[in-house]
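## retry 2 of 3
previous attempt timed out at serialization; input unchanged, resubmitting
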Amino acid sequence: MAVSIKTTRELELMRESGRRLEKVHDEMAKAIRPGISTWEINRIGEAKIRSLGGIPNFLHYNGFPAAICISVNDEVVHGIPSKKRILREGDIVSLDAGMIYKGYHSDAARTHMVGQVSPEVRQLVEETRQCFFEGIKYARAGCHLHDISAAINAHADKFGYGVVRDLVGHGIGTSLHEDPQIPNFRQKSKGIRLRPGMTLAIEPMINMGRPEVCWLDDNWTVVTEDESLSAHYENTVLITDGEPELFTLTQ
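## retry succeeded, writing output
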């Protein structure tokens, strides 16, 4: 496994890519409401990426037909935007977006609540986000990669949630997906030792029910097998000698 260590210049470009992607997420979040289509959210996201001098890295990636992955309720990831898919009060919607800025990728995901949701649904969204923050307590030089995985899994276990095993996080840089793969569930091995300059896309995908997932006939959309709700939270993270730096979450 060859995990790249980024140079100072590369980190400057990735930091800027992440900062701009955060603005894309802010723009899309403003648009979320009952009655809006996932196609319209995609249009807003792609327009913002391009207005900031970026290229949507998901568009046409392995044939994906949109700039933003938009997944609703029991859809885990890779939902394809559609004019027919209308958000309704009580839904949750995960927005996974990425951009290329001057050759460098950033990647981030957020799950949003549409209007009023039940306390159980709110908890799923909030604790999926917290899974990420529990994980990055170990995203520092000297820790091992799978310390992150174990911490994410341990937090999800407190609530009886299912941690998706068929999909994982990844390294990121001049390519959207680089080594290493980053599971969100416990591993038998320690994994690699983390070093300053590594850049990782850490992304818990947490189901309210069981962890099993399946793919729809479009060969993209991943859904929970038991039709339970799913939430997703991701940031592009830099390993440093101290606290990790979140390129896609600066506020």
